[in-house]
Amino acid sequence: MEPIKVHNGKTVALMNNNIDTDQIIPKVFLKRIEKTGFGAFVFDEWRFLKNGDPNPDFPLNDADRQEATILVTGDNFGCGSSREHAAWALKDYRFRVIIAGSYSDIFYMNSLKNGLLLIELPQEQRDVLAQLPADETIQIDLPNQVVRTSAAEYPFAIDPTWKHKLENGIDDITETMAYADQIDAYEAKWDNIYA
């Protein structure tokens, strides 16, 4: 998992509340077995018109927002089903950070485990971020837990365990492999018993 310490990026705003995982990645695209390739289908039903053309009214299709790596959004983001594909799709699309008012619990955990930094900020601060010019870069400073714009700083909270994992790129497999010696010793003990 790629570590996140200080991320400098541009924003795109999708200020709807209650965006569910089926809107993030429609179920018709859940046939892949890899974690990659889902970014092309993120928000598919909103990003594209029925004829397949990009929807000119959808924020992610704005020509000035094509470099955005930070999604600013509404409350209860990632609600609905527990599909981990939603986190895979957002990350594969190019997002590293999502700033919302709140998240569904399962989506929140899936995202953290896949290296997405999820930040909760109040409505008035997200409204300011949603209005930033397309060419403005903001800074997400995870060690100091602050979102910095050219005009303001917004502190955010994060569980210390997840902060450590994100800063150091530690996923579940990496964490387990830190105990490889103990695991090998345990397996060797049982191999000897049943040999």
Automatic annotation (TrEMBL):
<dbReference type="InterPro" id="IPR050075">
    <property type="entry name" value="LeuD"/>
</dbReference>
<dbReference type="Pfam" id="PF00694">
    <property type="entry name" value="Aconitase_C"/>
</dbReference>
<keyword id="KW-0456">Lyase</keyword>
<keyword id="KW-0028">Amino-acid biosynthesis</keyword>
<dbReference type="InterPro" id="IPR015928">
    <property type="entry name" value="Aconitase/3IPM_dehydase_swvl"/>
</dbReference>
<dbReference type="GO" id="GO:0009098">
    <property type="term" value="P:L-leucine biosynthetic process"/>
</dbReference>
<keyword id="KW-0432">Leucine biosynthesis</keyword>
<dbReference type="InterPro" id="IPR033940">
    <property type="entry name" value="IPMI_Swivel"/>
</dbReference>
<comment type="subunit">
    <text>Heterodimer of LeuC and LeuD.</text>
</comment>
<keyword id="KW-0100">Branched-chain amino acid biosynthesis</keyword>
<protein>
    <recommendedName>
        <fullName>3-isopropylmalate dehydratase small subunit</fullName>
        <ecNumber>4.2.1.33</ecNumber>
    </recommendedName>
</protein>
<comment type="similarity">
    <text>Belongs to the LeuD family. LeuD type 1 subfamily.</text>
</comment>
<comment type="function">
    <text>Catalyzes the isomerization between 2-isopropylmalate and 3-isopropylmalate, via the formation of 2-isopropylmaleate.</text>
</comment>
<dbReference type="GO" id="GO:0009316">
    <property type="term" value="C:3-isopropylmalate dehydratase complex"/>
</dbReference>
<dbReference type="InterPro" id="IPR004431">
    <property type="entry name" value="3-IsopropMal_deHydase_ssu"/>
</dbReference>
<comment type="pathway">
    <text>Amino-acid biosynthesis; L-leucine biosynthesis; L-leucine from 3-methyl-2-oxobutanoate: step 2/4.</text>
</comment>
<dbReference type="GO" id="GO:0003861">
    <property type="term" value="F:3-isopropylmalate dehydratase activity"/>
</dbReference>
<feature type="domain" description="Aconitase A/isopropylmalate dehydratase small subunit swivel">
    <location>
        <begin position="2"/>
        <end position="124"/>
    </location>
</feature>
<dbReference type="InterPro" id="IPR000573">
    <property type="entry name" value="AconitaseA/IPMdHydase_ssu_swvl"/>
</dbReference>
